[in-house]
Amino acid sequence: MAFFTDVAANVNNRFSAGTVEIVAIRAMGEPIPGPMFYTTEAEGRLPGQSGSIYPTGLWWPGRIVIRNLAVMNTGSLEVRLHKVSAQIESINGKLPTDEPVLSTSFANNMNVKIYVAGQPNWILYDGPLARLLTPQTAIFKPVISRLVPPHWPPMVQLIYEVTMLSTAGNDLQGIVPIVSFSVYAEQTANSP
Asked: Is the full-model pTM beyond 0.70?
């Protein structure tokens, strides 16, 4: 006993994956990249650059400094910012693990509030730097539309409001910590 058979094929199917890519640069009218928070003009420069125009000066208990971070979507998919974090890179030129008591005191006495410019109720994070040392899910998750060349990448302007608490003790006098801030993006369900 036999059965007739046949097969048909649809060939050359192409699947192109989109991309999730973000870039974060300081913003407040400064024309060059660099850190958001820096004490002197020289600290605000990257190697080979000149000029940085918004040094914070020295910190003290009760001091509040506000800086902007422009987060641009250079990928092809719509994204949302869903987590934020920070990392103490060094304290007085040493690793935080070499200065654990001082690192902990600094992290507990600095408050970080991150929100969307022009939308103070759109808060990503508001709390101690100590908790921000592990990635925190953003309270509000701003969406950045997808890049459609040749237009400038879509972006969101984040405000970082950092406060040295008025309860900070004398152990923080003269310290020089270096901190990195990170934002995390994920594809939205609405991406094309």
From this structure: yes
Q: Which amino acid is at 164?
A: M
Residue 182 and residue 85 in contact, taking contact as beta carbons nearer than 8 Å? yes
Which helix (H) or strand (E) covers residue 100, if one does? helix 100-108
Share of the chain above pLDDT 70, in %: 97
pLDDT value at 112 more than 90:
yes
Q: Which two tokens stand for residue 146?
A: 């997808």
Distance of CA 162 to the CA centre of its chain: 14
- Grouping H, G, I as helix, E, B as strand and the rest as coil, residue 106 is helix
Domain locations in the chain as residue ranges: 22-187
Give, in order, the Cα–Cα distances in Å from 190 to each of 64, 76, 79, 114: 37, 12, 9, 25
